[in-house]
Amino acid sequence: MQEPASLPGVPSLAELHARGAAQQPTYPDTAAVDAAVSQLRSYPPLVFAGECDELKEKLAAVARGEAFLLQGGDCAETFAGVTADNIRNKLRVLLQMAVVLTYAASVPVVKLGRFAGQYAKPRSSDFETRDGVTLPAYRGDAVNGYDFTAESRVPDPQRLVDVYHASSATLNLVRAFTTGGYADLRQVHAWNTDFVLGSPVGNRYEAMANEIDRALTFMRAIGADPDEFHRVEMHSSHEALVLEYEHAMTRIDSRTSLPYDVSGHFVWIGERTRQLDGAHVELLSKIRNPIGVKLGPTTSADDAIALAGRLNPENEAGRLTFITRMGAGKINELLPPLVEKVEAAGVKAAWVCDPMHGNTYEASSGYKTRRFDDVIAEVQGFFDVHRALGTWPGGLHVELTGDDVTECVGGGEELAEIDLGSRYESVCDPRLNRVQSLELAFLVAEMLRKA
Predict the structure, then answer these.
(1) Which of 85, 346, 392, 395 has the greatest number of C-beta atoms within 10 Å?
(2) Mind giving me the DSSP string for 169-223?
(3) In a 3-state reduction of DSSP, which class is residue 25?
(4) What CA–CA distance (Å, rounded) separates 359 from 353?
(5) Structural domain boundaries of the chain?
(6) CB atoms closer than 10 angstroms to residue 389
(7) β-bridge mates for residue 352, sequence order
(8) Domain 13-123+156-183+231-450, CATH 3.30.360.10 — does that match?
(9) Could you report the per-residue pLDDT of 165-195, keeping only the tens digit for each?
(10) Considering the chain, what percentage of its residues have pLDDT values greater than 70?
(11) Is the pLDDT reported for residue 3 higher than 80?
């Protein structure tokens, strides 16, 4: 495989693959891979190193208990989903959630979209079999197609170039929305007021919505109209999975001469690729972005401390976020010894709850789904553990959409398993819909007040 002019301090792609990189596509044409990687290396950054540094400062506040992180978006983005309506709806629900959480927590909420790069997914098996036909598993639009045909499922490196263009279009639109008046605080609150009035469970949240309304009325009465009322900062994030893409998008910052992965502001390592001596830990240990690691139920405190040592040897606040995904039935047992020992070791990391991935199951209809009550139970357990230990429950990492899909059961709409087929649109894991996402925000707001 061809390599570029060397990136100081960054291992080559060949060196990374020599570590036996997990969850990578098997490309049939290495020349096509080289061509796609070369093309990506010639493109401008999608984000700037200075923006990554700004996000790191905000995440340092999360780690200190002075801010709260809201990270959300699609399980797996698709090229077909890069439309103004889809992006606007996703952004809208994140903004709505952030207003409620900011008021309840009385600290800034760091807004981090799970978009503009979330096109690749790890899979439990390399292959999928249907009706006796076995084909490569769908690994996200970054790798192959969702259609169950031999042609569609061949990994195509040119899709990585398509990821760049799709991510660029998404970021352009997000920036336009967040600075062009769409994110105005009073407008976002009006959307929440409509939700409270029209939701089957809205009366539960009416008191808090009225409090926010009074606070905004007071600000207007005294003539306070800061710039922050009219625009927000939204950063991008995705799982750093396909090494060719992340390596090709790693550049040396002209200000500092340090390497940054300019495919997104924040990138994370998944539960399946967090091997201490693995390629993903090696690559992310070299870039200067703020980074995250998913910690599942098999993670020991020693594992987390070792990962912190590799990924954040200078123990810099804001550099490392631990995203726990234990499952509703396990979090109260597994999280306390993990947090307690990591904190006792002096590790500076933000603690964030992913209440989605530990609670997936297959419905009788064959659809993958999650129970809204399980999602809430895991978040409640997360808050309870941190309250008991005197540590800060730093944020939420949620798979959601701004559309009215039917992928998770329960919530105020009381979606049942029989409803899943009516609007199940995810190509991978089930997401909370618009109403469920807003209900989650109000319920977490109640937890934050107690925290």
Answers:
(1) 395
(2) HHHHHHHHHHHTTTT-HHHHHHHHHHHHHHSTTGGGGHHHHHHHHHHHHHHHHTT
(3) coil
(4) 12
(5) 13-123+156-183+231-450, 185-227
(6) 15
(7) 323, 395
(8) no
(9) 999 999 999 999 999 889 998 899 999 999 9
(10) 99
(11) no
